[in-house]
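Practice set, problem 2.
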Amino acid sequence: MKENEKKLSESLEKYLLAIYDISKNNSNIIVKDVSKYLGIGSASTATAIKTLAKKGLIDYVPYGNITLTKEGMNLIQLKIYRHNTISTFLNQVLEIEKTSADKNASAIEYSMTQDVLIKFVHFLDFMKQCSCREPKWLNSCKHSLKDGQISKKCTNCVSGKGGCNGCCSG
């Protein structure tokens, strides 16, 4: 999935996500709804809403309803896709508990530069779609995570002595 997104701060993304979440059950969203949803003051929320409107991600007039624009909806869908891809990797591949995987996925997203994040999500998406399904090196990594040690068949690969014993190739 290509990532053509406007760079938003973590805070602005949270406002945009809140609008998206609220819109699932309410088509008449006002600043007070977003403020209450996030537990943030109305003045701060109004400022963020105005910023999102200036960026063309929402339609908003003061004291009126807030709606996502097509561009805003595309950005939210991309954000959700990116988050779910990272969270799924953490949960299913690294076997991190779901709640922790979700929390850490968010931290990972905001700790990387945009160019690295795009390549990271592309790699995870590629690995998910790859016909190899689960390369041998991934199984070896899972074994290492569980046992705390590298398997004997990987010793040559890691030490650089004697070449690979087949643990790395698909």
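Problem 2, part (b): a different protein.
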Amino acid sequence: MLAAKTKDWFGMTKELLKINIGLQHPSTHGVLRLITELDGETVKSVEPVIGYLHRGMEKLAESRTYLQYLPMVDRVDYLSGFFCQEAFCSAVEKLSDIEVPERAKYIRCLLMELNRITSHLLWLGTYLMDLGASSPIFYAFREREMILRIFENLTGQRMMYNFHVFGGVKRDLSAEILDEIEKFLEIFPEKIKEYESILTDNPIFLSRTKGLGILTKNVALNYSITGANLRASGLNTDFRKQKPYLVYDKLDFEVSTETAGDCYARYLVRIAEMKQSQRIAAQCVDYLKNNSGEFKNSSVNPLAIKPQGEASSFVEAPRGLMICTVTADGSEKPYRVKWRTGSFYSVQILPELLKDRNFADIMAIFGSLDVILSEVDR
């Protein structure tokens, strides 16, 4: 359809073309609608339209007990289930003064870092498909499948794991599972080198990502961007380091940053983050193999949880800072649950990043932000 009229350099009247991009799940990483105004091939404005999932994840908590809501939290971000579980469980544990055993903390940390790798691998493969390359997704899914099989052996699920409990985790990691994880961690560094050999110096990939979609520090901070998208703009902000939770203060790892702030920098940060996740996971496996302990607080009765007050917890999730705030009134059901997720803020930055860009660059820029619409329509 035709949009508003405008004038070119010579004073001639011309009309902008207004088109919809989406709703198409494969192309817009979920049911996202972008109302786009085009001047030829140039994007003049973009309006993201959200809300098509009709999920109500926050409102649903008010009609369920804490135990009944727990299996649902994986779906806040279906690619980061262990992070969602940690955020909700940690908030309830703060409210209820529940102590989490040390071994359970290491197990949670290990599973989250493996989950971060699976999330980044899916992003890597699908992002290259956004740019027109089909082969890399088979490389990325090759290793992702190995981790998903570990998760399936441990939890019975490839997604929606429902493995955390208030005060720990549902079951301990057996020696067989730890050996399987260790084998994966041993081969994974070489696999990352394969991804880099295909992409990092690839001239086509560079032309589609370098210098494109530049997100400056100030704009990133003004829009509350967090996670890899923020660190690719030169800000060394990672809550695993700044405000350590679980056992991150006992683990040796580095925060991955870049300064360019473009699509290519966001790729480099996520590649580096997978290396660091492998490093963290290896330390967790080493601890779990050489130390014993309880995997959950056996004194906790999940049916008797009736806290009062308000508490927030956070995790450094694959798509940025994830915060869960629980308000309790002393009943068996939460009075209010509020989620803060990284993808919501990555969507609202699109009008800034896409303005005056070429139409073909829309998906290159949008895909580099790693948006999951379930986080947005929560």
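Answer key, part (b): The chain has two domains: 2-49, 58-376. The chain has a mean pLDDT of 91.
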